[in-house]
Amino acid sequence: KACRLVQLVLLDHVIVGEPDHYSYTDAGDLKNLEAIEGQANGKQKKEPQPYAKADQIQIRGNEVVSPLRQRYVRLTPEEKVRQEFVLHLHFHYGYAFEQMAEVQRTQHGRRSPKADIVVYASPEAKAARKSPILVVECKAEGVDIHPRDYYQGESYARAVGCEILVMHNHRHTAIFRLVPGTPGEAVQIND
Q1: How many angstroms separate the Cα of 146 from the Cα of each of 24, 71, 81, 85?
Q2: Is the peptide bond before 123 cis (omega within 30 degrees of 0)?
Q3: Strands, DSSP E only, in 41-113?
Q4: Confidence category of residue 155, pLDDT binned at 50, 70, 90
Q5: Are 81 and 111 in contact (CB under 8 A)?
Q6: Ramachandran sector of residue 32 (left: φ over 0; alpha: ψ -120 to 50; beta: rest)
Q7: Does the pTM of the predicted model rise above 0.90?
Q8: Could you point out which of 60, 71, 108, 141 has its C-alpha 20 to 30 Å from the C-alpha of 52?
Q9: At what angle do helices 24-41 and 2-17 cross, to 10 degrees?
Q10: What is the CA radius of gyration of the chain?
Q11: Residue 161 falls in which region: left (phi positive, over 0), alpha (psi -120 to 50) or beta
């Protein structure tokens, strides 16, 4: 019985801690061992939950967690890129979730431009509906970065008076300073 318990603990650790390092037979053995242990102890064991690192997106079937909307949303190639970039902004650059918003629309009607991600100077600036400091337009990984492909992000940024536009497609991130004027110009400020 002690050997079974040690094997159960080891298999549980491998499955929960490192999901890439177990086989289906290990998972089947774990379920069998859990059932045996549960019967011996007179109680049912819970299924182990997959290990999710805080800085990685969480996918469940055809849904992905949106930390800004605090719910699961439909998983599309663009949505995956968006959620990964939200986590990158939070964990790499230190922006709080409370100072960011997703799929933000300007206040100019139903057909007004929207931005994938907007970042405000602070949560208070977001609550006061001040201009964001960054507007991020995301596209699926296969979409190359061309300003014409990111029109809605640029349009949103100009409508709210934001000077920095970030265009991201998972393979590449381009940062532009928007020059005011009609027509305005977008000057890339990174390589």
Answers
A1: 44, 31, 17, 18
A2: no
A3: 59-60, 63-66, 71-74, 100-105
A4: confident
A5: no
A6: alpha
A7: no
A8: 141
A9: 130
A10: 23
A11: left
